[in-house]
Amino acid sequence: MTLLRAHPNTLVAVALCACVILAVRSDPAWTDTAVLTGIDTLIALSAGLSFGQAGILSMAQGAFAALGAYAAALAAIRLGLPGAAGLALALAVPAAIGYALARALIRLSPLATALATLALGSLVDIVLRGWESLTGGYIGLAGIPGLGLINTPLGYLLLVCAMLCISVFGYENLMHSRHGRALNVIRHDRARARADGVDVNAVLSTALALSAAMAGSAGWVYAHYISYLGPDSLTTNTSIAALLTAVIGGAGYILGPVFGTVLFEALQRFLPAQEAQGLFYGGALVVILLVARQGLLGLAATSWRGRRRLRPVQAPASAAV
Q1: Number of separate domains in the chain
Q2: Which residue, 82, 213, 256, 311, is the most exposed by fewest CB within 10 angstroms?
């Protein structure tokens, strides 16, 4: 049995979160921005798991986050359940739907899978808008209670950072496990994985379920932090943004979605117009696909390996004449 341990990516995530907390803790506006960026990072990290590791081009990460958010909000408002119970539902509901969806779609081509997950996002949007007695319809759900002692932006930032570090820790240990090694083989050659006795359908379905649960946890925090949910809160645009930032940062690297999201959230400060942001996202994606198909972290890793390969070998001192 492999013991869980903190690998380098987890340590980097902890250091990054600590730097962010120290930098913004005294400014409420920046603290609020950091909380929302952390939520977006969790959704992007879920897209990195589904696409970068499992090879499933999911356009439903925003829908999974919305399902988790509404499950938690309804548990708190209608049933009076505590935040912990809401978190359990926010993890379980998207995970169950993600697993069932993957089992049904796993044999389809990547394009067909992307369209099917996009259709799921549209279906979730229709249900949220149309089922007024449950979801509030176009009006949404207001008055979602907070999480007890966590009632300040700084408290939510600490919570989001803890969840992000835990997610990276679990993600990294997953990729070092038998399941992660099976995912790696499947991503490169499904026929070989089947020949090696890997249950491809079960492994990929589990990966998408874990990805959906991660997105659902982001929705849980979002619902309690904003205290309002509407059909426009977590949409298909959320899925597209998460996938774009994961690809640009490096979806095949665990921390790629993290750096991609942080970078683009920072750059958005200089692009206030919505149209300019869309053009920037599209242009950046085209450039990344042309210059660095493995994302920014992939480009950095390739450059680092190239420099080490070209570094001159130093002769030992004893060999000097």
Answers
A1: 1
A2: 311
